[in-house]
Specification:
The protein is of the alpha+beta class.
């Protein structure tokens, strides 16, 4: 594995992976500052800040930021999650120094022009409105809120429109001072990159930054609960969350294998029973989501108002039944799906750089891919049955949206799981 990891004296991390034979590279800065790092009055500001980084620096206008990368045929973008904010670019190997210069500029030197703040505020409010009009987007925000009520982890990344409408220059600058310190930053690069060159550039660009004083985010507590909204839609949207391991938990790969066997493809239990055998929906799936200190295995489906009750019952029955009769063949197939999905997904420098940053953020190191594969292959049927039983007996959250009058309440589903 051609992975190298260094840390500057101020805690700034530099991690690279040289991928022989490639002519392109993906480079970026990942900052440990996302939705869960916001106070209540700041909800949505990490995402707002991500937008504003592209609206001008002390050296470049918004147009110049875009043109500097696109003039060489590259691509630049960013995203905000609950734990990280990322600024990244994909360029040819010869243009890596340019990409690093532009990315460092937008991260370190945003000007937060009040006029641009107003322009981007309108864009973000439109984004919030679009999300609220998309049922299979908004239901996952509601599920997150139901699982982690009253906590930063349960709030939306976009934030409520009333808060976004009030953010100003001082709010943005304050969040940067509080969270954009070197020990929270990771420069990750993969593809046609030379580690020593990237590390020297990082030292020049970030080496003088002073360490911050911010503490760790509030620990997440999966409490569970229900969020339901009746609305005249074509489909009833159903999302159920089961408390499951976080990334740092020894059972994370067991949870991933279970979720894959439960609802990870056309051969999964949920697809075969709910769609193929009963025709209750067009699409249904399960996935294991994880954070540093918590996780949630989610089941989602959209169905008709007359089918929502049966679909919910069958879904929880399949979870419970997995604890008793999950087969070796199902586990073997799920392991193969997970392994192949991971390896296929790492065939681009963008996905490799993303993995490097996330591994350093979570574990402070980059496990060899072979190590991860070995952990997946080590999962056994007894472990999958055990975690299915623990999830069935554990905390749950439910979100329903649309014509859901006939949907069971969460307490009824919990009783069914516990029976």
């Amino acid at each position: 594995m051609n992975v190298r990891l260094d840390r500057l004296d101020n805690g700034f991390s530099v991690v690279t992976e040289h991928m022989p034979g490639l002519q392109s590279a993906s480079v970026g800065i990942w900052v440990n500052a996302g939705g869960r790092h916001e106070r209540l009055e700041q909800n949505g500001i990490a995402h707002f800040l991500e937008h504003m980084a592209f609206k001008g620096t002390g050296r470049r206008t918004a147009r110049e930021i875009a043109e500097s990368i696109e003039n060489v045929g590259g691509y630049i973008n960013a995203y905000t999650s609950r734990e990280l904010t990322a600024y990244y670019a994909r360029v040819l190997g010869a243009d890596v120094p340019l990409a690093l210069d532009v990315i460092s500029d937008i991260v370190l030197n945003p000007v937060f022009d009040p006029r641009e703040i107003e322009v981007e505020r309108g864009v973000i409010l439109q984004e919030i409105g679009q999300a609220l009009d998309t049922p299979d987007d908004v239901i996952f925000d509601w599920l997150q809120e139901a699982a982690y009520p009253g906590q930063p982890m349960g709030r939306t990344i976009l934030g409520p429109s009333e808060r976004v409408s009030a953010f100003g220059q001082a709010d943005l600058s304050g969040f940067v001072r509080e969270h954009y310190s070197p020990e929270r930053m990771i420069l990750a690069a993969a593809g046609a990159v030379d580690h020593d060159t990237v590390a020297r550039t990082a030292e020049r660009l970030f080496g003088a930054l002073e360490r911050g004083r911010g503490g760790a985010p509030e620990k997440a507590r999966f409490a569970g609960g229900e969020r339901r909204r009746v609305r005249d839609l074509e489909q009833a949207h159903f999302a159920l969350a089961l408390e499951s391991p976080g990334y740092r938990d020894d059972d994370i790969h067991v949870a991933q294998v279970f979720a894959t066997a439960l609802g990870g493809g056309m051969s999964s239990r949920l697809f075969q029973e709910v769609r193929e055998a009963r025709g209750l929906c067009y699409s249904i799936y399960a996935q294991a989501g994880a954070y540093a200190d918590t996780g949630m295995t989610t089941i989602y489906a959209g169905t008709g108002p007359a089918q929502i009750g049966e679909l919910a019952a069958v879904a929880v029955d399949e979870v419970k039944r997995s604890a008793d009769d999950m087969s070796d063949a199902e586990v073997e197939r799920a392991r193969a799906q997970l392994k192949a999905g991971m390896l296929m997904g790492l065939e681009s420098p963008s996905s490799r750089a993303e993995r490097l940053a996330r591994m350093v953020a979570i574990w402070g190191r980059v496990p060899a891919i072979e190590e991860t594969v070995a952990r997946i292959e080590a999962v056994r049927t007894a472990q999958v049955r055990d975690i299915a039983g623990r999830m069935a007996a554990g905390r749950t959250a439910l979100a329903l949206y649309g014509p859901v009058e006939a949907a069971p309440v969460l307490d009824a589903l919990r009783e069914r799981l516990a029976a």
